[in-house]
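Quiz preparation item.
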């Protein structure tokens, strides 16, 4: 057991030595060196492929026409989100959780017939009721929460 502890210590020491050597090779690049590199890069910026940063919401410097209809949402329309329907929830202790088996019944915090919560990435966006469509479960939205209400809940 003592040999195993010594072996781990030797491995840790070898790893520490490798890190020390790598840090020693990197040199002492101080703030003056970083500033010099940035100044040299700024002098060559026109010939590089970098574009200057713009403030979000500023007027674009390109010559394309600006739309007055609001932000262009095309860039985010293909982002996948997770949608789930919550029947209800409850809190139980681990002892009761470990005693669950097939046929166990868990009492939820909702009454029968109450609408389900529709969550997108964990955020409540609507309420609905379960329906069957072509022998598959579905949900009919009964109440959609307005975007302004969703924003209020985030604060």
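Solution:
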């Amino acid at each position: 057991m003592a040999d195993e502890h010594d072996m781990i210590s030797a491995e840790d020491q070898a790893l520490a030595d490798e890190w020390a050597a790598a840090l020693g090779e990197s040199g002492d690049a101080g703030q003056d060196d970083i500033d010099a590199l940035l100044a040299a890069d700024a002098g060559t910026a026109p010939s590089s492929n970098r574009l200057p940063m713009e403030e979000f919401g500023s007027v674009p410097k390109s010559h394309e026409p600006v739309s007055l209809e609001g932000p262009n949402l095309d860039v985010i329309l293909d982002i996948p989100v997770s949608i789930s329907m919550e029947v209800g929830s409850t809190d139980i202790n681990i002892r009761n959780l470990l005693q669950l088996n097939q046929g166990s019944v868990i009492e939820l915090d909702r009454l029968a017939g109450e609408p389900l919560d529709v969550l997108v990435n964990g955020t409540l966006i609507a309420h609905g009721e379960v329906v069957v469509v072509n022998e598959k479960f579905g949900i009919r939205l009964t109440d959609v929460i307005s975007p302004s209400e969703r924003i209020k809940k985030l604060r």
